[in-house]
Amino acid sequence: MKKKNKKVNAAILIIGNEILSGRTQDKNIAFIANWLNSKCGISVNEVRVIPDKEEIIIKNILEMSKKFNYVFTTGGIGPTHDDITAQSISKAFKVKYEYHKEAFKILENYYGKAKFNDGRRKMSKMPKGSKLIYNPSSAAPGFIIKNVLSLPGVPSILISMIENCKRYLIKGSKVHSKSLNLFTVESTISKQMGAIQKKYIKYVEIGSYPFFRLGKIGVSVVSRSTSLKKIKKVNQDLIKMVKSKKIQILKI
């Protein structure tokens, strides 16, 4: 992993008609977002789900690669006709779509020359100048070009490859979080919580999330920041507010 930088962000681009149709349920968003935050200090600021259409992939790649430090794509780098992610990214960055020599050798050795058919060869084609993201599960590598990292859509394979992305990433400051679970409703604390958020707006993000537990309605107030010290101060203000309103705190 490269030298640490305080604030680093990323976006996730899920590519696949099967996700949009509901045929396949995405499992990669939560995993990638959690891995980036907990292991790399990189926050995911946006997620998009798009179909396997060249013009749409190109449009989103160009927009997101300019807007974020990193873009992670999943899906569309397999052996079939509708796997067009690598070709589309090549067109987005105006580089040649070609066989990557090392990827070609990896796959040829994995399948053997006799079984290394056109579909399998296709998995070694990617934008010119790409660097490989190695695949310990099924050999077919992902790739990185500029700030776009392309991974397969199959969750088990993606999970096995994710650590091999680290070498290309600049590490950011880890975002810490603290939860305060209350037996109340959001409207009871919204005004006071808004005032606390305004007070610490530069340092801490505060969110509220309703829940239903033990037969009661409650709210989980979550504070997030790169500074544990600031989170502690926010939590002190929140507890002071909760006690003044005589709201029960749920300890879990």
Structure characterization notes:
Helices cover 37% and strands 29% of the residues. With 252 residues, it is an alpha/beta fold. Strands 2-1-3-8-7-6 form a six-stranded mixed sheet, sandwiched between helices. Strands 10-11-9-12 form a four-stranded antiparallel sheet, with helices on one face. Strands 4-5 form a two-stranded antiparallel ribbon. Strand 6 and strand 7 (139-145) form a beta hairpin. The mean pLDDT is 95.
How would you summarize what this structure contains?
With 252 residues, this protein is of the alpha/beta class. The chain has nine helices and twelve strands. The protein has a six-stranded mixed β-sheet with strand order 2-1-3-8-7-6, with helices on both faces. Strands 10-11-9-12 form a four-stranded antiparallel β-sheet, covered by helices on one side. It has a two-stranded antiparallel ribbon with strand order 4-5.
Write the layout of secondary structure elements.
Layout: E1 8-15, H1 17-20, H2 28-40, E2 42-50, H3 54-67, E3 70-74, H4 85-92, E4 97-99, H5 101-111, H6 118-122, E5 125-127, E6 131-135, E7 139-145, E8 148-151, H7 155-161, E9 176-183, H8 186-199, E10 205-213, E11 216-225, H9 228-244, E12 248-250
Distance from N terminus to C terminus (CA atoms, Å) equals: 36 Å
Shape call: elongated
What is the third-level CATH name, the topology of the largest domain? Molybdenum Cofactor Biosythetic Enzyme, Chain A
Superfamily at the CATH H level of the largest domain? MoaB/Mog-like domain
Number of domains: 2
Number of helices: 9
Major sheet strand order: 2-1-3-8-7-6
CATH architectural name of the largest domain: 3-Layer(aba) Sandwich
Contiguous low-pLDDT stretches (5 residues minimum) are none
Task: Give the helix/strand class.
Answer: alpha/beta
Largest sheet: 6 strands, mixed
H and E string:
EHHEHEHEHHEEEEHEHEEHE
- Helix amount: 25-40%
Name of the top-level CATH class of the largest domain: Alpha Beta
Q: Please state the CA-atom Rg, rounded to the nearest Å.
A: 22 Å
Mean pLDDT: 95
Beta-strand residue fraction: 25-35%
